[in-house]
Amino acid sequence: MNEAGGIAGRDFWEYASFVVTTLALPFAIAFFAWEQRKERDNEDEEAYQLLSDAYNDFLKVVLVHPDLQLRSNEPLSNPTPEQNERMLVIFDMLMSLFERAYLVAYKPKMGETERRRWNSWDDYMREWCRREDFHNALPLLLSGEDPQFQTYLRRIAQEERGALIQLS
């Protein structure tokens, strides 16, 4: 009986090992991969939300300077040197935000959710590039920015208003 019980016990453990190897292990790997993807999606959503909040904070800065008419379709006519300076600083803030969004959210190949999130940023960039004053300041604003971001924004500016004037 002892030998038979030992064989039956060994058979049971071999069978249990087979079940774990063929069923439970692949399930555990799939579950782990699913959890990792869910975590990445949550991190992407959090990054998108932080960028969105930063753009809303930027718009608050724009609202504090209504004399610059930054939300109108036409640039401010005859701005003072002080207004030009404030506008350039605000444009610098915006460029920094756009570059951060590009570095965090842009990928050449995106899934549907990523593309939807990125399209918001692409829309913002296009909207600002249509502004004559922002468009004219782009050569200065893009100086020192990420080269791929420069290429991307120059392409958008070209599509929205035409070629950039290069500063010497």
If you compute it from the alpha carbons, what radius of gyration comes out, rounded to the nearest whole angstrom?
28 Å
Q: Termini distance?
A: 97 Å
Q: What's the pLDDT, averaged over the residues?
A: 86
Question: Quick one: overall form?
Answer: elongated
Could you spell the SSE succession in H and E letters? Answer: HHHHH
Number of strands: 0
Query: Counting H and I runs of at least 4 residues, what is the number of helices?
Result: 5
Largest sheet: none
- Name the poorly predicted regions: none
SS strand fraction: under 5%
Structural class, please?
Answer: mainly alpha
Helix content: over 70%
Task: Sum up the structure in keywords.
168 residues, elongated, single chain, 5 helices, mainly alpha
Detailed description of the structure:
The protein has helices at 2-64, 81-105, 112-129, 132-142, 147-161. The model has no long low-confidence stretch (mean pLDDT 86). By secondary structure, the chain is an all-alpha fold.
